[in-house]
Amino acid sequence: MAADLIRSPAVRLLHARQDHAICLRLAASYRHRIAAGETDQREAHAWALGNARRLRLIAAELSGAN
Length: 66
Fold this sequence. Notes:
Layout: H1 2-5, H2 9-35, H3 42-65
């Protein structure tokens, strides 16, 4: 379990990029659902976009460290 907490910058960068891509796909899915009339998905869409932005900044910071 401790090994999961100690990750190299390259692994952290990879995970941030993967998580960013997942959040973008989630946001797109929520956007389609909102367009189809499911307006209750607006909060989830905002959450996914917010996380994607945060992860993009983390990935940019980590890529500068490599």
